[in-house]
Structure formats: structure tokens, C-alpha cells
Sequence to fold (89 residues):
Amino acid sequence: MVNLQNLIIDRPQEGKFKVHRSSMTSKEIFELERERIFDRCWLYLGHESEVENSGDYRRRVVAGRPIFFSRDEDGHIGVFLNTAHTAGR
Fold:
């Protein structure tokens, strides 16, 4: 398990704040972020103007999950987990 305390230097009295570069590339840290942040809050997927017309859709990967949103015939927007791309997980 990664020791998170070794990744951050936060000494405001000295004017120092540093984050180790491995925190940006570590798969283990990404999984912790997904669990502790992305699984517990609302995430921005896109703006309604991106799907102006009925049948319009956009795809995104958010926190490692393939998601799409679309506008239906009544003008409502729906958001869906693209399970066709998660079957092998």
C-alpha cells in the first residue's frame, strides 16, 4: 500500500507545497481517488448545449467509467453507464 504522507510536503510557514509526481501517474492512487472522491460526489459530465437536438449524444470517460448522455424525443437528457464497454472488467 502506498504511503500518502510521503507524497505531499505542506509547510506553509516556509512557503512550500509540493506533490510528488508519482501521485499523478500511480494506478493505486487513482483507485483511492475513485473510491474516496469520485464514487461519493456528483461529477461534471457535460453541458446540455452539447446535446441540443433529439438523438444527439456525447460519450465521455469519467473516473475511468465509460458514460454517455443523450437527448430524447421529448427533450429530456439521460445519462447512462456504457455497459457494453465494462463487460470485461
Observations:
- The radius of gyration is 19 Å.
- The first strand starts at residue 8 and ends at 11.
